[in-house]
Design brief:
With 617 residues, the chain is of the alpha+beta class. It is built from 18 helices and 19 strands. Strands 1, 2, 3, 4, 5, 6 and 7 form a 7-stranded antiparallel β-sheet that branches. The chain is elongated and about 190 Å long. The N terminus is likely disordered.
């Protein structure tokens, strides 16, 4: 049965029209009965039987039509048509696809068979759809020779009529076929015309119900998807709320644990919020801070009122360091930052004041500065002492050297072998003392900035050979072999020859002093891409890694006992470093304890020499 509540208003009107048409059909049946009575006299018995059958079929169809829908409707309709016309095949098809017909019912050999689809092109149904109807009482296979299905069905006669919607557009078809020619073609055409409208109405209703069901199903699916999406959104919102709550708790914990005081000030610079650390720093509770002007709480900040106003006007952060604040009887120092807080329209809503107490740091800096000033004064006094002492030592040292030479020349009389040995020891001690005095004077000049370089272009290879010859006696006495790796061609470099010679002499002297008897000292000179490099390599005792970084510091001595044995004040390497750097060069060392050391320095071949040298602190 048709569920009338599910039928749209237009379909209900269509059913009402169907009822009227059925009433008209019943009236037509009555007229046919009268016509049948008139024809009984003239028609042969077979024709009389056909009309009776046609009449009985129409009556049966009219009674069952209102109580059947959808498949039952089309099955009953096909059965009624087959019974009324006595044909072999009846099909009612849907034409939703313009290329193929899909059967709604297929009646053959006295029963409804399984539905199927078939192509319209080249079939008699295509003509029925195009023309509105098509009837051929015989010769069907000759008319459609390519219709394999017609051959299979052995169809000889065809009648078909299109089922159209209210606009006249074909939506389906009713067709009958018979394996013999139609005995009554007029009856076939009349019956199909009669049932076409109710069949079309039922087809359109079925389509409407199908579309409605599809739309309903789509809406139900969309609603279910919407519900699922809504549930997911609710779950996400709940999860996000939990995350926000957790994040807020974390932020609150971080703010409470921060070692920085935080104060929020509105545009009037009135305190609206503060954290626990700021309360601890100031020693003031919230009741003394909230809703009060920052300048009222800290009068000393009034002097920086303009800086706070600048933050509000320009929206730029302001920082201050070591700011003193008077808090009653005590004074503290803070590092602070004033940061603007913006509205959505980028106007400044207020400011955040971050403050960290640095009283201990400020006190430490003050003490450190006092220590630095004390050390500078001690350094100055030490320099003055060294300068004064070195100058004072030169006069007696000159006398000692002179009188030692007198004794050596036997001016005071002949010397015994022992006495001559004593004179030699006096001369060696005087030379050692002279070197210390010279280092002290150079150091004093370097510290005072009065040390001057006299630069000119000179052959560095020749200078190396000269200094090597100068230390040859020292190497001979120490039983150390000297070797050279110097190119034969001149290697001219802009430098102060006397000062570079002083550096070479210092490095060679140190190498000889700290190389045991039987060892070797090699001086090598080579040209590099951006200058020249001098290396002094020895097979001596070496230097531990922990001392390498301090070798060029003034007064540093790796082993003071060995220094006392060989002489020196620990100034030679620091002076060498100052001299090399004044030439725009670099100096360094590599060493392995027990295997020897390599001291090196490099000079640029083209450079502007700093004529004033300074010892590095």
């Amino acid at each position: 049965m048709i569920n009338r509540e599910l039928i749209p208003e237009t379909e209900a009107d269509e059913l009402l029209r169907l009822r009227r048409e059925l009433q008209a059909a019943e009236e037509a049946i009555l007229r046919l009965e009268r016509r049948n009575q008139e024809l009984e006299v003239r028609l042969a018995p077979p024709q009389h039987w056909v009309l009776q059958s046609f009449e009985a079929t129409l009556r049966s169809f009219a009674k069952s039509l209102l109580s059947s829908t959808e498949k039952a409707f089309f099955n009953l309709l096909s059965q009624a048509i087959a019974k009324a016309l006595g044909v072999d095949y009846v099909l009612i098809a849907d034409l939703s696809d313009p290329e193929h017909a899909r059967t709604l019912t297929y009646y053959a050999f006295g029963q409804n068979l399984e539905n199927f689809s078939y192509p319209l092109h080249g079939s008699p149904c295509a003509l029925a759809v195009t023309q509105g109807s098509y009837f051929l009482s015989q010769g069907l296979q000759e008319q459609f020779p390519e219709g394999d299905a017609l051959v299979t069905l052995q169809a000889e006669a065809y009648g078909g009529i299109a089922l159209c919607d209210a606009s006249g557009r074909p939506g389906g078809i009713i067709a009958v076929m018979h394996r013999e020619p139609f005995a009554f073609p007029e009856a076939v055409e009349s019956l199909l015309n009669l049932v076409a409208k109710p069949a079309a109405a039922e087809l359109m209703r079925l389509r409407s119900e199908t579309e409605t069901a599809l739309r309903t199903r789509a809406l139900e699916q969309a609603y279910a998807a919407l519900q699922d999406h809504s549930l997911r959104i609710e779950a996400e919102i709940a999860q996000r709320n939990r995350e926000l709550t957790s994040e807020k708790a974390l932020i609150d914990h971080i703010i409470a644990s921060m070692p920085v005081g935080i104060v929020y000030l509105d545009r009037s610079l009135v305190v609206r919020w503060t954290n626990a650390e700021h309360i601890r720093i100031t020693g003031m509770g919230p009741e003394r801070l909230i809703n009060r002007s920052v300048f009222e709480i800290f009068p000393a900040l009034a002097a920086d009122h303009a800086r706070f106003e600048a933050v509000l006007e320009r929206g730029e952060a302001v920082r201050f360091s070591g700011y003193p604040l008077e808090l009653g009887p005590r004074q503290i120092y803070i590092d602070g930052t004033v940061v603007p807080i913006f509205e959505e329209d980028q106007t400044v809503k207020g400011v955040l004041l971050f403050a960290m107490e640095v009283s201990a740091r400020v006190e430490n800096e003050r003490l450190q500065q006092e220590q630095i000033e004390t050390l500078r004064e001690l350094d100055r006094l030490k320099g003055d002492f060294i300068n004064s002492a070195s100058h004072e030592l030169r006069t007696p040292l000159t006398s000692i050297t002179g009188y030692a030479e007198f004794l050596e020349d036997e001016v005071g009389g002949p010397l015994s072998a022992d006495q001559r040995g004593f004179v030699t020891q006096i001369q060696e001690g005087a030379k050692r003392l002279q070197r210390i005095v010279d280092d002290m004077l150079d150091f004093a000049r370097l510290e005072a900035g009065s040390f001057k370089l006299v630069a000119r272009e000179a052959d560095l290879g020749l200078l190396v050979q000269e200094e090597l010859a100068f230390v040859q006696p020292q190497a001979h006495d120490a039983q150390v072999t000297l070797r050279t790796e110097v190119p034969s061609e001149p290697l001219r470099v802009p430098m102060d020859p006397s000062r570079i010679g002083q550096v070479i002499l210092n490095l060679l002297g140190n190498a000889i002093k700290f190389t045991p008897a039987g060892g070797e000292v090699t001086i090598a000179l080579r040209s590099e891409r951006d200058g020249v490099r001098v290396e002094v390599r020895d097979t001596g005792i070496g230097i531990s890694e922990e001392h390498l970084g301090r070798l060029f510091q003034k007064f540093f001595q790796v082993d003071p006992s060995m220094t006392r044995e060989h002489g020196g004040a620990g100034l030679g390497l620091s002076i060498a470093k100052a001299l090399i750097e004044a030439h725009g060069g670099r100096i360094g060392v590599t060493s392995q304890l027990g295997k020897g050391s390599t001291f090196w320095f490099s000079l640029p071949q083209l450079s502007e020499i700093d004529e004033s040298a300074h010892v590095q602190e």
